[in-house]
């Protein structure tokens, strides 16, 4: 969707003129021995498991391409993160599932770090919430000394390390406003693809995951690519506000209305999950942005009208999974807390907190300890804390809750500064819409999800990159230089 000249500007490494290139490569016998050994290794891996050889060869191609286009490597990594689910996993190593995301992350990291070495890029940057996260990681590692399930605790630590790697790559290589916009395009197109598979996959025979989850086995709740319905809704939720806001700054009318249609499509695909929390998070996030910005207020009211019309039409027409999902939301608004599943888990979290004198049981181990508090819950499919806050109460106690609050505060301050830095530019739209999604997620996280949930951290890293870019451009503008972020106004 970008013109050729735009794509050329994203080539961070250009080949030198022919007369300036290094002499042609002359392979030595050692080189050919290395090639032969590599082929023997690939053949042995193919005999062991053909998928491993295919992944390695594909990875070599990816690394070669991404050395020349590292920003596209980041986009591929984000797309793989959104698409990757347990049902798309190739195999497992212990309790860790290996799917699309893991090999793409490894190959992207190799290519991007190699590019950093070649360009002498400084990777160890600082950003507002970084110290808090590092302290959280340190406390989690310390918690391994008293955790009740060491294997699960190590798995949680590995999840935190993956977050560090992905965030480091995103923040280091997304360096301009054009890079941020390209990542938003990657995110939108990936979510449109996921939404298409969610709505039409079962009918076309491409997907059939409903029976995998008790929450959707009776029908009426779409799982997308095999995620639990609430997680599927959360996976699409982040881009809804930004897709609508991104449309406002488009100069091409066809692109503008295409993005508006994509917003409605992703929202409706999200609603096929029948997730009440997903619907509330959209309203909460959009409402907060509307309270602070008049133009968002205007568009938010328009979106509410369209959403109500879509709900009413799907409700009375009962259109397949969409109608069932929306009916579940509208007919069960009053039962979000009426069942005892969440309450029992929260009571167990409080019990673990009290019994450890506020220290927490350490990373992992919630399921192991749950049997002491509710045997019925332990043998059910609902045995997880049902909320990030409650998970911190159980696992990391007072320190975890304090760090969670500090993290939320630092992100809020960063959002305030980003809005200030981007005022009067195109980036101001994203400065409002991206934290709106995070606010909706934060409200939703009191009844669902875990601390290291994807794709929240990728979304936060992309917003952090926007913060660093806008801060740099604002400082350059204060010095009398011309900002590279185009001027644009959110005024009515």
Can you describe what's shown?
The chain has helices at 4-9, 29-48, 50-68, 70-83, 101-119, 130-143, 150-173, 177-204, 229-248, 253-271, 276-292, 294-317, 320-331, 340-355, 366-370, 375-378, 388-395, 397-422, 427-444, 456-478, and strands at residues 91-93, 96-98. It is mostly helical. The chain folds into two domains: 28-123, no CATH class; 125-352 and 354-478, no CATH class. It has a two-stranded antiparallel ribbon with strand order 1-2. A hairpin with a 2-residue loop joins strand 1 (91-93) and strand 2. Helix 14 runs parallel beside helix 17. The model is unreliable at 1-25, 213-218 and 333-338 (pLDDT under 50).
Lay out the secondary structure.
Layout: H1 4-9, H2 29-48, H3 50-68, H4 70-83, E1 91-93, E2 96-98, H5 101-119, H6 130-143, H7 150-173, H8 177-204, H9 229-248, H10 253-271, H11 276-292, H12 294-317, H13 320-331, H14 340-355, H15 366-370, H16 375-378, H17 388-395, H18 397-422, H19 427-444, H20 456-478
Antiparallel strand pairs: 1-2
Helix pairs in contact: 2-3, 3-4, 3-5, 4-5, 4-7, 4-8, 5-7, 6-7, 6-18, 7-20, 8-9, 8-10, 9-10, 9-11, 9-19, 11-12, 11-19, 12-13, 14-17, 17-18, 18-19, 18-20, 19-20
């Amino acid at each position: 969707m970008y013109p050729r000249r735009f794509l050329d500007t994203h080539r961070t490494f250009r080949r030198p003129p022919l007369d300036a290139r290094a002499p042609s490569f002359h392979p030595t016998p050692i080189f050919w021995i290395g090639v032969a050994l590599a082929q023997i290794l690939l053949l042995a891996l193919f005999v062991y498991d053909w998928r491993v050889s295919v992944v390695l060869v594909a990875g070599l191609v990816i690394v070669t391409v991404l050395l020349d286009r590292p920003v596209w490597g980041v986009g591929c990594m984000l797309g793989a993160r959104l698409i990757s689910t347990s049902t798309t996993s190739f195999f497992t190593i212990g309790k860790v599932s290996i799917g699309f995301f893991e090999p793409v992350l490894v190959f992207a990291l190799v290519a991007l770090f190699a590019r950093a070495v070649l360009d002498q890029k400084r990777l160890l940057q600082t950003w507002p919430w970084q110290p808090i996260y590092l302290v959280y990681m340190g406390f989690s590692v310390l918690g391994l000394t008293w955790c009740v399930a060491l294997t699960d605790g190590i798995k949680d630590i590995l999840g935190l390390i993956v977050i560090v790697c992905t965030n480091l790559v995103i923040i280091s290589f997304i360096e301009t406003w054009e890079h941020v916009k390209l990542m938003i395009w990657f995110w939108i197109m990936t979510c449109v693809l996921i939404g298409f598979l969610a709505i039409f996959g079962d009918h076309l025979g491409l997907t059939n995951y409903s029976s995998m989850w008790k929450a959707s086995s009776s029908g009426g709740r779409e799982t997308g690519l095999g995620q639990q319905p609430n997680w599927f809704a959360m996976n699409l939720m982040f881009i809804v506000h930004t897709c609508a806001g991104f449309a406002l700054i488009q100069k091409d009318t066809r692109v503008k209305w295409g993005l508006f249609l994509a917003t409605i499509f992703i929202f409706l695909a999200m609603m096929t999950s029948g997730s009440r929390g997903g619907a509330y998070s959209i309203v909460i996030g959009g409402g907060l942005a509307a309270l602070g910005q008049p133009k968002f207020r205007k568009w938010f009211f328009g979106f509410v009208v369209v959403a109500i019309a879509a709900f009413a039409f799907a409700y009375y027409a009962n259109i397949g999974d969409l109608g069932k999902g929306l009916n579940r939301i509208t007919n069960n608004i009053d039962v979000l807390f009426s069942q005892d599943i969440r309450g029992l888990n929260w009571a167990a979290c409080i019990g673990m907190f009290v019994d450890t004198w506020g220290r927490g049981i350490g990373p992992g181990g919630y399921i192991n300890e749950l049997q002491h508090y509710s045997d019925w819950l332990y043998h059910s499919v609902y045995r997880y804390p049902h909320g990030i806050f409650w998970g911190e109460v159980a696992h990391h106690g007072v320190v975890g809750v304090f760090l969670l609050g500090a993290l939320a505060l630092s992100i809020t301050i960063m959002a305030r500064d980003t809005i200030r830095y981007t005022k009067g530019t195109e980036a101001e739209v994203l400065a409002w819409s991206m934290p709106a999604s995070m606010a909706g997620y934060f409200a939703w996280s009191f009844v669902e999800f875990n601390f290291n949930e994807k794709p929240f951290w990728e979304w936060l890293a992309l917003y952090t990159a926007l913060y660093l870019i806008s801060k740099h451009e604002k400082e350059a503008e204060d010095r009398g230089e011309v900002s590279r972020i185009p001027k644009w106004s959110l005024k009515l």
